[in-house]
Amino acid sequence: MMFNFLPNHVLQWLAVFLSIIIEALPFVLIGAILSGIIEVFVTHSVVERLLPKNRILRILFGTLIGFVFPSCECGIVPIVNRFLEKKVPSYTAVPFLATAPIINPVVLFATYSAFGNSWRFVALRLIGAIAVALILGLLLGFVLDDNILKESAKSAHIHDYSNKTFGQKIFYALAHAIDEFFDVGRYLIFGTLVASAMQIYLPTRILTSINTSPVFGILILMLMAFILSLCSEADAFIGASLLSSFGLAPVMAFLLIGPMVDIKNLLMMAKSFKTSFIVFFVGTSSLMVIIYCLLLGVMG
């Protein structure tokens, strides 16, 4: 009752803002905790021991390891940032950044359920995400500068926890996780404010009412995915509701680009990554999604 003096559109904005925050915060917390664990328990020697020696295999490793990481795009940036600080090459970390929010078991099961227990949509989403990630990895591994972290995002000091007891390591991991949570949380809140405002004040219903060509339909739903900034655990249910209006190719573009590039994720990336890399990541991911979905449209 205390907010009755606010206009309805402001109340709607606050409601959407809170719904996105409540949906995203658990995954940001998981990401922060994993970041703390990586900081304390994963050393450079451990990274060298676990990663394959071959560069192609490292790209594949980064692309596919998301199968066992239950993370969405809300919490993936701090994890990737910590991996990069631990000298995981960017051509391994960036494919993980692209695929982990899509190919993890939780998201795949949600996709299966949303589309009427259809393995077809799961397979198409899986293949598309892997294709985009492999291109990103190959370009970073063989063509482009793979130094993608801002200098300000790199740890000023490399802490050595090897002489700490297990209990002390847990303490330091949790302390780091708290710092990471509040640090990333600032960007999440600002990004969510922008995303929720765009949902209320940008008339997306107009977009859904436009009769489109396949290319235009793909671009519209990619834009909608960016604006809505849904968590990847929930976007399949929205995508399924758009299937009858737009068809397979645009809906698949919606399901692929949203977990890779949305408003809140972009702002969190801007904290840690160079602008040139962000432009490369957004441009390459978008182009690959468009090409993949156009091929789907041609093949029916």
Word description of this protein:
With 300 residues, this protein is mainly α. The model has no long low-confidence stretch (mean pLDDT 83). It has helices at residues 8-41, 44-50, 55-64, 73-85, 90-103, 105-114, 119-142, 166-201, 204-209, 214-228, 235-246, 248-260, 263-272, 275-299. The N and C termini lie far apart (52 Å).
Write the layout of secondary structure elements.
Blueprint: H1 8-41, H2 44-50, H3 55-64, H4 73-85, H5 90-103, H6 105-114, H7 119-142, H8 166-201, H9 204-209, H10 214-228, H11 235-246, H12 248-260, H13 263-272, H14 275-299
Characteristics:
300 residues; mainly alpha; 14 helices
In brief, what are we looking at here?
The chain is mainly α. The protein contains 14 helices and no strands.
